[in-house]
């Protein structure tokens, strides 16, 4: 009888499966463990993670380390992945035109159109009426003016016959001002550079009722009506309208030379070199065209970006970081797969006066690089030394078993599966597919883009700048703390708590990880966060699942595939497996999350496969 542990070192996770192999070569699995991978996969720093999972798997199995005979390491696929993101449009405001400011707490409601006048002129009705006889005005109130004073000044002016149509405040007290006014007007506050708001110009302020969004300023023809624009001018301001869509409040000032431009940054092109064909595609054409070009020239041999452009810089960065990781010269790094994803990122508008933010188009790229060799032998030597030192006196460490083949062997232990079968391993950096045909032949592909890119998209699209929180948003459903004792979950149901919720969570959208709740900063609604989360998953995993299956299916025909088994960390996700299954249903494919050995779920396939393959070798007298 032999005590063995199969170990799978992944980019993110190291998994182990402990078993005994009897004299009749029968395998009994006894315990499993997993831990984060230490260091870059395939390098000696992996030894810490390996030692930890071996130790824990043996404990779970009730086997003493001194009785350990063999550790089986996979011949890790020498691929690593990298990613980059670049915005390809920018909104620029010239001459301090203010657009789109949407403070947290605007006051009043309605649409006010008038000429912007300084607060001080309210006290000087002569000057005001000389300048703008009987015309409505929009008062611009600088920071530091007390809300009671400002409200009283507006009321006095109104009584004198001045039509105050709206107000723009530097302070954050629109609601306090509105509560003290005789008439309801729309009021915008928190304009940080209030002194930069142009005066004597026609402007419009719109505030929608609670729970509603503005209707006029977010409509290009609404703007045209207010500012009497002709067709050409309407075309110019249409980006303004688009930028304001969905806001509860907005202000637009029309200045004679001022302009809001929606500029496409010359993003540059990608040169895709296939093994037999090449293509060049402009990145600003978007992900669909880029991916069509990738598919046309596949298999990819390498990718370059146009030098001197954002795309050039992006590809150079990916190449450099992967060269550093894998200890290769930059010239030895060849990009073998590329996934492009369209995304939107909130960016502060250049030239804005109140920290206005516009959603800019961006493209995210994930790239896959094949490294020279896996370096597993060096890892094996390091693991042997470490385990011997820990008391495993007679352990030998064996490298063997191609990752894809082992994954298939492990996946086939899922109840209800049969050949031909495709394994989709949804990992952190890559989506790996392996197919086993009825005649047992195995084929595999490694595609760029997986769980880490989903996290990165969520982080960028919500403007979080916090990958840990983005990871939480990816993994857990949302809720909204509606009172101190209950949370409304995203599916509409309510969860009650006996102890009061933390004050930081109150009235916020939170992630619910089962243990606690993490409030999500910013003003995103639950619906929007949910949409960002779900579309990020779809744009990566549904796209990659289809790409992978087209690559491994006989003749590229998805109908030839009977079973798809999902494995890897992202197969544990609460919605990715359903999204993939929905996309594959039209092809008559049975698709589900793996349950390795009927107990391990989508985890441990490679580790279990290593043990099974070793036992088969023992049985055939190969060991
Ligand atoms: P690898 O094989 O590359 O080491 P894994 O199979 O461990 O990678 O997958 C890592 C990915 O799985 C990460 O993107 C991580 O966010 C995701 N992941 C891990 N656990 C879960 C979970 N419980 N729910 C959703 N995603 C998960
Ligand atoms: Mg893996």
From TrEMBL:
Pfam families: DDR, DDR_swiveling
Domain Diol dehydratase reactivase ATPase-like: 281-614
InterPro entries: ATPase_NBD, DDR_dom, DDR_swiveling, DDRA, DDRA_swiveling_dom_sf, NA-bd_OB-fold
Domain of life: Bacteria
Domain DD-reactivating factor swiveling, residue spans: 93-260
NCBIfam families: reactive_PduG (TIGR04491)
Protein name in UniProt: Diol dehydratase reactivase subunit alpha
């Amino acid at each position: 009888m032999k005590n063995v542990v199969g170990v799978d070192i992944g980019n993110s996770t190291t998994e182990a499966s402990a078993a005994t192999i009897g004299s009749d070569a029968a395998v009994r699995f006894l315990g499993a463990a997993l831990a984060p991978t230490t260091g870059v996969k395939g390098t000696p720093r992996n030894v810490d993670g390996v030692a930890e999972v071996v130790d824990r798997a043996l404990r779970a199995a009730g086997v003493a380390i001194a009785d350990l005979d063999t550790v089986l390491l996979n011949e890790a696929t020498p691929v690593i992945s990298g990613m980059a993101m670049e915005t390809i449009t920018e909104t620029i405001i010239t001459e301090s035109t203010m657009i789109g400011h949407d403070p947290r707490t605007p006051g009043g409601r309605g649409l006010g159109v008038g000429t912007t006048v300084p607060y001080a002129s309210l006290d000087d009705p002569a000057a005001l009426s000389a300048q703008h006889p009987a015309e409505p005005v929009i008062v611009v109130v600088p920071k530091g003016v007390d809300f009671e004073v400002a409200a009283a000044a507006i009321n006095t002016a109104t009584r004198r016959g001045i039509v105050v149509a709206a107000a723009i405040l530097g302070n954050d007290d629109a609601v306090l001002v509105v509560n003290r006014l005789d008439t309801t007007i729309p009021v915008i506050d928190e304009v940080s550079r209030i002194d930069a708001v142009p005066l004597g110009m026609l402007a419009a302020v719109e505030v929608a009722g609670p729970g509603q969004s503005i209707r006029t300023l977010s409509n290009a023809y609404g703007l045209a009506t207010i500012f009497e624009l002709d067709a050409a001018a309407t075309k110019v301001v249409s980006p303004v309208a688009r930028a304001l869509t969905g806001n509860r409040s907005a202000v637009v000032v029309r200045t004679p030379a001022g302009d809001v431009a929606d500029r496409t940054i010359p993003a540059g092109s990608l040169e895709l070199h296939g093994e037999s064909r090449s293509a060049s595609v402009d990145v600003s054409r978007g992900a669909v065209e880029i991916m069509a070009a990738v598919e046309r020239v596949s298999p990819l041999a390498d990718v370059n970006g146009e030098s001197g452009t954002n795309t050039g810089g992006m590809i150079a960065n990916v190449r450099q970081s992967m060269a550093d990781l894998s200890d290769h010269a930059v010239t030895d790094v060849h990009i073998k797969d590329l996934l492009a994803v369209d995304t939107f990122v909130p960016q502060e508008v250049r030239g804005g006066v109140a920290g206005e933010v516009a959603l800019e188009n961006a493209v995210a790229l994930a790239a896959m690089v094949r490294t020279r060799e896996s370096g597993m032998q060096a890892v094996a030597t390091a693991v042997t030394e470490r385990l011997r030192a820990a008391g495993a006196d007679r352990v030998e460490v064996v490298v063997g078993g191609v990752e894809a083949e082992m994954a298939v062997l492990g996946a086939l232990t899922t109840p209800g599966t049969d050949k031909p079968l495709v394994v989709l391993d949804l990992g952190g950096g890559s989506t790996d597919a392996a197919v086993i045909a009825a005649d047992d032949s195995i084929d595999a592909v490694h595609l760029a883009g997986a769980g880490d890119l989903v996290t990165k998209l969520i982080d960028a699209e919500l403007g979080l700048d916090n990958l840990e929180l983005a990871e939480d948003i990816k993994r857990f459903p949302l809720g909204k703390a509606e009172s101190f004792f209950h949370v409304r979950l995203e599916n509409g149901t309510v969860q009650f708590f006996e102890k009061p919720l933390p004050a930081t969570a109150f009235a916020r959208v939170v992630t619910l990880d089962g243990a606690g709740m993490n409030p999500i900063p910013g003003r995103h609604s639950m619906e929007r966060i949910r949409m960002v989360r779900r579309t990020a998953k779809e744009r990566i995993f549904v796209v990659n699942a289809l790409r992978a299956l087209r690559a491994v299916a006989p003749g590229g025909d998805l109908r030839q595939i009977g079973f798809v088994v999902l494995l890897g960390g992202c197969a544990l996700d609460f919605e990715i497996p359903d999204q993939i299954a929905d996309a594959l249903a039209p092809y008559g494919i049975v698709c589900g999350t793996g349950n390795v050995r009927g107990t391990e779920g989508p985890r441990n396939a490679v580790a279990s496969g290593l043990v099974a393959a070793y036992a088969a070798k023992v049985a055939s007298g190969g060991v």
